């Protein structure tokens, strides 16, 4: 038996509505699910269009406080356009676009402080 994909990972947030609005409305991800799972648990899942891996926006893991996740790496084919669009939506992108051997990237945080890297591979 072999592991053949990453299905999902959890992003700790303080307010699922605010996080959903950011990941869907600002970043442009698709809302895959938004389902009440019980009186104190809601399953909110987002994903890039066509991706095999999704992200759940969670509030229920006591060992994962909101803003504690760093290194969420997202890929784009239009880094310049996305940076312009995100800034217009109020996203603080300190430092601007940086270059690295693998491509160009920016770093910013979601509303809770979870760290996101948006990158465009070399040649894109």
TrEMBL record:
InterPro entries: Glyas_Bleomycin-R_OHBP_Dase, Glyas_Fos-R_dOase_dom, VOC_core. It holds the Pfam family Glyoxalase. It comes from the Bacteria. Residues 2-121 form the VOC domain. This is VOC domain-containing protein. It comes from Arthrobacter crusticola.
């Amino acid at each position: 038996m072999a592991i053949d994909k990453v299905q999902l990972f959890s992003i700790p947030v303080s307010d699922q509505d605010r996080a959903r609005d950011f990941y869907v409305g600002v970043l442009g991800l698709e809302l895959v699910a938004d389902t009440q799972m019980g009186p104190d648990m809601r399953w909110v899942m987002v994903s890039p269009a066509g991706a095999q891996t999704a992200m759940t926006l969670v509030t229920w893991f006591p060992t994962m406080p909101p803003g504690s996740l760093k290194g969420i790496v997202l890929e784009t084919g239009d880094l310049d356009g996305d940076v312009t669009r995100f800034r217009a939506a109020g996203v603080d992108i300190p430092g601007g676009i940086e270059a690295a051997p693998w491509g160009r990237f920016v770093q910013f945080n979601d509303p809770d402080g979870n760290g996101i890297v948006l990158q465009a591979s070399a040649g894109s």
